[in-house]
Input
Amino acid sequence: MLSLSTANPFARRETYDKRSVATYRALTIVTWLLVVALCLAYTIKDPAGARTIQDQNATHPSPFALHPVITGIYWLLLLVLQIVYICFLFGTTAELVSAAASVGSHFIVNNLLVSSFILLWVHAHFWWAEVVLVFNFFNLTSLYFRHLRAPFFVHIPVVSGPLVWNFMALFTDGAVTVNAQSLVTRLFANIAIWVIMLYGLLFLAAFQDYAIGIEMALLVAALAVQQLIIKVIPLQFIFAFIILGVLVLATLLIVVPAFFGKELRFAKYEYEEEAIGESRLLLEDE
Output
């Protein structure tokens, strides 16, 4: 009979047998390709009865709309880094395969939820899209705190990168959902934008996570530029540029000392002492 930890795909394990690794590899490839296919399909061509991703952004300008080019660059870099992660998952080094497989369940769920969000977004089901983002926020936040010592090839493409985008998407889709055009919602948007800064500073101060600092700075730059272009709400683009400056400065305060020798938590994969001799894949015959 399977134990609870064995049956639970999100349970932390020190080793993974061949069947588990093969399952993670197959589902990771399939769900990742699904995200890529939907991104490409709904960026290039209008879906039946819906709009492209960018057309939907243009049709619903909001105080948290992101610049499509900068956001596109962010996603392109993220997808490329995720290819690197997948290569490690298919690697031959037992420790690195185990590190990649340890976050596999969360990454697969993230891919499925991102795919669902894209479908809901292009078909203008904004309320349901927000629900999906909330679920994924909890999924990715749980992943972050359960794997604080993940190596860089896991942390950036699977943990921090998707988490930062999902956090910003909560604001973007939320503003579209409530149709933030009234005086009350505009004032609320001017206040809510500072939550973005506090969220980024939290990870920089508490975990010295410069990856999140860089990622948030890039998406806040997308927010600032787009708000400068559309000017849906007075002061919103000014606040966004101020927040961008604060995040860049705070990130530099973390990166510069690290450059001169201060090691950051996720920059080097630290194995637990008791797991050093046990982090080999189980290669026994099924």
